[in-house]
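quick one before i forget lol
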Amino acid sequence: MSQWLEQVIDAAQISDYLAPVRQQALEKLKADGWPARRNESWRFTPLSSVEKREANLAAKAENLPVPAIENLNAIDLVFVDGVLVTQVNTLDVPAGMTITSLNSNDESTQQAISSVYGQVKPARHMFGLVNDALCQHGIFINVEAGAKIDTPVRIVNMASQNVDAHTRVVVKVAEGASVTVIEQGFGDTESLTTAFAEYDLADDAHLEHYRFAMFTGKAKQLGGSHFKLHNRTTLNSTMVGYGSELSRLDVDIHHAGEFADAKMNAIYLLAEGELFDLHSTIEHAMPNGTTEENARGIVGDKARAVFNGRIHIHRDAQKTLAELNNRNLLLSRRGVINTKPELEIYADDVKCAHGATVAEIEEEALYYLLTRGVSRSKALVMLNFGFIQELINDVPNTAVRNWLAPILSERFSQMEVK
């Protein structure tokens, strides 16, 4: 077992109402130990930067300026170095929705949180188990039956110092309700962040979801977004990830009801020498479900991208329609992409497809732009945008869509091969 994991286990506090989940997580961590390179889930993602790290939690955090999304009117919830700095009880929350801290003393709230905390996220996620055990700061968002919440909720994780940060988001959307949730992470310091979110979506509920994992530099981010869909639930999720010293995002979508519909678009952009790992698992356990997953990555010089997308069709999940596509663009032949789309099907009346491609910038297209007076850096931005433009156009929220375009342009300028 690693030095860091031993210190994590020693530091865990299991005296609150979440003690059963925390204790179970600790026991599994002790039993499983540190993942070896032969572990398929971590085969292409080295953990040496974490293995010998000193576990260190922030005692306090300052309220730092939060990068804005222009023209987006949202309820902002801010974590700095794992500490919730927003005064939740001062927020102006629309009728039909409540936002509380995980440290709530209200018994009915604790019961609602316990019904989701650690119940949606699969136990196979090692850093999710760490988050189960160590998370002391988190929020619970509860949307009442039939409520249509127009104001997005934006959850911001910021890393400003060399500490470990463990944050949790628990969301419960009742029957017929709808809400938009944005998870956003920033930081380039030599920090470690585990940020996990669990969503329990009842019958006929709708969730518009975003996750912007934008840690860079020496930051180590290990997190996940996990969803449980019931009858006729709809999910539209957009993920954008940057590379850093270690970036890992796990996504799980569990079709636990009939006629559930899930759409997931993912974009990952890696500058020189960076790493990004996206693992997604779609569990179709009930009939008549649909899933559409599109992941596109652009990989810079000496960078490494990992994509593992798995769709599992259970025996009772007849009439399932599921499609998974992963497309990748190399900016240099020294970049590396390990892609592994998977289909595991046990039902006989389904329509499923999967595929993956890896390509380079077309020299002919680049030459065409250069000969017409376009600079090389601008030409590369134009060609890169063409590769991901379709997914950007699919972003449902206009303010978010307009905000993404310029920041991705800036990101491309950092990725240019010199």
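fyi Helices lie at 3-11, 19-32, 48-51, 107-114, 126-134, 363-370, 376-393, 398-415.
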